[in-house]
Design goal:
Structural class: mainly alpha
Strand content: 5-15%
Strand order of the largest sheet: 1-2
Helix content: 25-40%
Bound molecules: iron/sulfur cluster
Distance between the termini: 22 Å
Shape: elongated
Order of helices and strands: HHHEEEEHHH
Radius of gyration: 16 Å
Number of domains: 1
């Protein structure tokens, strides 16, 4: 099966909703600040939340603060690594239950694709990172 048909994001926004977001490291914070033409301190105050030694994006109205009304990510070109990687997460490799749990929440996976084909795609995605 062609890799484009194994997974294709449906832009449903499910992975941008919830009670917490992914972590954003210092390099990613600076890239987002540059993209938004903001000072780092202003970005951190307006958009980010620090819990202990972990910084993540704020949640507003049940979704990431960067999730737009059009259903798209407002910082798509510079979104954090964990957002770029999702849902082709390495936990899928060697654990079909992890795959099934992720697939349950993400309509982008093709039901016709085998677990092995999905693992191959995850491997290829890791190489590109
Ligand atoms: S849940 Fe899956 S299909 Fe929906 S936006 Fe996220 S990655 Fe795309
Ligand atoms: S940064 Fe973008 S892709 Fe990541 S959770 Fe927020 S809105 Fe979604």
């Amino acid at each position: 099966m062609e890799k484009e048909t194994i997974f294709e994001c449906k832009c449903c926004g499910h992975c941008c909703h919830g009670t917490a977001t992914v972590s954003v490291n210092a390099e990613e914070q600076q890239k987002i600040a540059d993209f938004l033409k903001m000072d780092l301190s202003a970005l951190r105050q307006e958009f980010l939340l620090t819990k202990g030694n972990r910084t993540e994006m704020k949640i507003v109205d049940g979704h990431c603060i960067f999730y737009g009304n059009d259903g798209l990510c407002k910082i798509h070109p510079v979104k954090p690594f964990h957002c770029k990687q999702w849902p082709l997460h390495p936990s899928i490799l060697g654990d079909i239950n992890a795959y099934n749990a992720i697939k349950k929440d993400c309509p982008g996976f093709n039901d016709e694709a085998s677990y092995e084909e999905v693992c191959q795609l995850v491997m290829e995605n890791r190489i590109q990172d």
